[in-house]
Amino acid sequence: MTRLDLGIGARLALGFGVVLAIVVVTLGSTFAWYHQLERLQRHQAEGMELSRGAAALEVAVLDRAVATRRFAITRSVEHFDATAAAAQEARRALSELERRGAVPGRGAEDAAVLLESFLVSGDRFLERVKDGADATALLQPEAEMTTRRDRLAAAVKRLEGTIEAELGRASASASAAREALVLRTILAAVLALLAAASVATLTTRAVRTPATELVSAARALADGDHGPALALAPPAPAAPGPRPAVRDELRELARTFASAAAALKERERRLSSDARLSRALAATIEPESIARDALSEVVGYAGAELGAVYLADEGSLRPIATFALPAEAAGRGEGLPAQVVVSGTTLRVNAIPAETPFRVRFGFDEVPPRSLVATPLPFQGRTMGVLLVGSVRELGDAAAEFVEAAAPRLAIALQSALAHRRAVHLAAELQDRNERLQAQNEEIQSQSEELQAQSEELQAQSEEIQAQNEELLAQNEELNRSGAELRRGREELARVDQLKDEFLAALSHELRNPLASISAAVQQLDCADAERGGKRRATIAHQTRRLARIVDDLLDVTRINKNKLELRRAPVDAARIVADAVDAAAHAFAGAGVELVATTGEPVPVHADAARLEQVVENLLSNAQKFTPPGGRVQVSVEREETDAVIRVRDDGIGMPPDVRARVFDLFFQGARAAGRHQNGLGVGLSLVKRIVEMHGGTVTCASEPGAGTEFTVRLPAAPPGTEVTAAPVRPGRRDARPLRVLVVEDNDDFAFLLEDALTGWGHAVTLVHRGEEGLALAAAGGYDVILLDVGLPDLDGYEVARRIRQAAPAPRAPIVAMTGYGRPEDAARAAEAGFDVHLVKPVDLDRVEALLAELGARGASLARG
User: Fold this and answer.
1) How is residue 104 annotated by DSSP?
2) More confident call, 36 vs 469
3) What value, to the nearest 5°, has the Cα angle with vertex 167 and ends 165 and 172?
4) N or C: which end of the chain has fewer CB within 10 A?
5) What is the pLDDT of residues 385-441, one digit of tens each?
6) How many other β-carbons are positioned within 10 Å of the β-carbon of residue 35?
7) What is the mean pLDDT of residues 775-800?
8) pLDDT band at 494, cuts 50/70/90?
9) What is the pLDDT of residue 444?
10) Predicted confidence band at 736 (pLDDT cuts at 50, 70, 90)?
11) What's the CA gap between 552 and 614, in Å, rounded?
């Protein structure tokens, strides 16, 4: 076999070339394993991003719930906008989770469905709040919203649990990869050393002879024998030329191998530090602990002696963790950290002068730092803090690069921890606000009950002052209770209280006028002659009817509001009804000096309640008379226009401005009081007109301008031409009555006296008592043809007295007639249930009482119960 004729350098180059190839293969394998580890670490970082996204979603849901509660309390636009912003942030956080790979296996689809369900329930709750619903009406939507929020929170927790599990698996995979990397590196190094030993052995065999010759020559030269050294000299070149360069291949190869080994060791140290830093960032959720542990890892890798982590706090920097640095030395981040916040870039300072006032204690000595590296903690385009590392030695590029690479990871971990802390704080704040809201609700309820009690006490005082009309006071109390909706808040209470005061003032004014007339007429009856006495009695009758009309209007408003007003429709002549209303109002118009002109024409049949239609016309005429000055004129007409019966009432009075005209039909509304006028009324009549006309399927409109008078137009569906109308009822006259034995139970002395006087004047035998127990004893003894019984008695009420009489009296039994100020339909039904045969409402029409007794006398028996 032919041996290659190679020199020593070539042989060494060939041998070390083979070793270098083995090293390169080893390094390539190591880098490939390292890239695999980096991929696992990126997967771990993605898991951390998903965990932070889930935390952001949870914070947004809590923000939405807190903003909704704040809007329910304050009802401000700012808090309503906050609910919309929180909803948008929640959708954005969920979208970010889906974009980052939160696939159905991680529960993103469940969270999306529950999030939309929670937002929809919150929108419904906000709509109820904007519609003015009270606390009771908000309980059900609030409970629904809370339930869906809890379900969403549970889904987010499950999503976080899934992400944390995957993050744990990723960490485990990264740890396994690091261990595999170390093991493979060691194995590759061992294999490389074995290969190098083999190559070295082969190479040594190739160079042993020249090396031995060199050693022998060196020893001989040391002994002074120059022969061997000269014998090793190469032959002289045949032609002159440059001498070839001599290179120490062995030493260069050693340096190359040493550099490769140093790089491999540095890479392994970097991977180990990255792993410890990741574990430190994921070990806890406390920001201070995260900053402290991460700072320790960074300082340890960089070989530094001091460090600090600052967080931006309202325009300044606050240290949350330090390493070998006193708190007073860390300060508030003045100097280099503040410059980093302004510039947003990493700043590095080397060769700091020894005379700097900044000192760091090492053992018993204080020395100035030699090198500082400060880098921002970036998060979503803003600087949330600064990471500072310093050393008494110069920090190398590798240390600075590691500090800069660790900053974003530390920022993300700190942001997640701070977000979790805010979420816990918001949850506690929400719980506290819920408790305060409950306490406020209870306090408002207590205040409402107290105000209700005060209102009832005020009403009781009003009843005592105005005891002459019990029905009017009862209705007034009902109106006050209906108007005082205390739960709408203090502003609503003040507004309703003002309306109540205005209504009571107007009611007092309307009651005092007829009462004054009645009082004056009564005082002058005794001293007046027959003609003047007749006029006084007419005045008393007229003012009494006026009081009864006020009470009837108020009762009608109450019945309409409760949908209890019944219409008794029949074919009637609208022209006849208008004529009757004009006749009834003629006296009032004449007394006011206002001309009343009526144009009725041909009959106009309509299908209507005659009494209610006459009430509509009378109210319109009364309104026109009040606001027409003396010497003015009021025109009323009725005619048929196609399929409508049209009634018009026009005056040439003071008219109305547009704002008053727009509210003229509102209940209790009164325009500005006209100069010189004193009869503005209660604000009930026109509202009653509108509601009665609408119940008939018709319309009423108002046309008016200031100073140009007013015209009201009523349109009702007309009956077909030729419809036979019902004749107006004829009022029953007096009849000769058979004397009856009448028991009267009435606690009002004045009314009892007048009733007894009237009954005695009609020829009846009357027994009068004032208490229920007395009436019950007399009725049990028997001997009475009829019993007139008041309901509101001081001891037993009339219902109980009637019930006991019916239970004790044998047949045939005497009829019991109720005389009461309670005139609602339910009052009449209660009276019938208790055993009353007839229900009369005060003020009682004596003609009706006389006719009733005459009918009983003619029949000679008690009334049949219907």
Assistant:
1) G
2) 36
3) 95
4) N
5) 998 898 878 888 888 888 889 989 888 988 888 888 888 888 888 888 888 888 888
6) 10
7) 87
8) low
9) 84
10) low
11) 14
Q: 365-367 and 360-362 as β-strands: parallel, antiparallel, unpaired?
A: antiparallel
Residue 840 token pair = 């009369």
Most confident of 34-43, 76-85, 203-212, 698-707: 698-707
CB 743 within 8 A of CB 788: yes
Q: How far is CA 417 from CA 161, 283, 308, 458, in A?
A: 16, 11, 18, 60
d(CA 354, CA 367): 8
In angstroms, rounded to a whole number, what is the distance separating the alpha carbons of residues 180 and 174?
10
Average pLDDT over residues 614-636: 89
Question: What Å distances lie between residue 410 and 169, 210, 279, 506, CA to CA?
Answer: 21, 60, 12, 75
Strands 786-790 and 644-651: unpaired
Q: Is 856 exposed, middle or buried (0-12, 13-18, 19+ CB in 10 A)?
A: buried
Q: Average the pLDDT over 640-666 and give the result.
A: 86
Report the pLDDT value the prediction gives residue 848, as an integer from 0 to 100.
82
Q: Can you tell me the distance from the alpha carbon of 28 to that of 5, in angstroms, rounded to the nearest whole number? A: 34
DSSP assignment, residue 305?
Answer: S
**Is residue 667 pLDDT above 50, yes or no?**
yes
- pLDDT class for 730, splitting at 50, 70, 90? very low
Beta-strand runs (E) in 652-792: 699-704, 710-717, 741-745, 765-769, 786-790
- pLDDT of residue 248 exceeding 50: no
Residue type (1 letter), 785: D
Q: How far apart are CA 569 and CA 350, in angstroms?
A: 105
Please answer whether residues 119 and 87 qualify as being in contact, where contact means their C-beta atoms are separated by less than 8 angstroms: yes
Selected residue with higher pLDDT from 89 and 496: 89
Q: Looking up tokens 């009822």, which residue turns up?
A: 729
**630 preceded by cis ω (within 30°)?**
no
Work out whether strand 570-573 and strand 595-599 pair parallel, antiparallel, or are unpaired: unpaired
CA 597 to chain centre: 59
Of the candidates 64, 1, 38, 352, which has an alpha carbon nearest to the alpha carbon of residue 177?
Answer: 38
As beta bridge partners, residue 349 has 372
Q: How is residue 49 written in tokens?
A: 């991003």
Segment 205-228 mean pLDDT: 63
Residue 837 has pLDDT above 80, yes or no: yes
Amino acid at 768: L
> Residues 422, 425, 431, 433: is their CA dihedral positive or negative?
negative
Amino acid letter, residue 510: E
Question: Chain-centre distance of CA 617, in angstroms?
Answer: 48
The phi and psi torsions of 865 (rounded to 5 degrees) equal: -80, 135
**H helices present in 466-489, as ranges:** 470-483
Residue 19, Cα to own-chain centre: how many angstroms? 77
Burial 446-474 (b: 16+ CB within 10 A, else e): eebeeeeeebeeebeebbeebebbbbbbb
Which DSSP state fits 565? P
C-alpha–C-alpha distance, residues 422 and 770, integer Å: 75
CB 317 within 8 A of CB 374: no
b/e 75-113 (16+ beta carbons within 10 angstroms → b)? eeeebbebbeebbebbbebbebbbeeebeeebbbebbbe
What six digits make up the tokens of 501?
């005061």
Sequence-separated (6 or more) residues with CB below 8 Å from residue 754: none
Report in angstroms the alpha-carbon separations of 56 from 145, 200, 412, 416, 816.
20, 62, 12, 8, 78
Burial class from Cβ neighbours inside 10 Å (0-12, 13-18, 19+) for residue 575 reads buried
CB-CB contact of 621 with 584 (8 Å): no
Tokens 């009403």 sit on residue: 459
The verdict on whether omega for the bond into residue 244 sits within 30 degrees of 0, i.e. cis, is no
Task: Write the burial class of residue 704 (CB in 10 Å: 0-12 exposed, 13-18 middle, 19+ buried).
Answer: buried
> Shortest CA distance to 824 belongs to which of 569, 566, 481, 617?
566
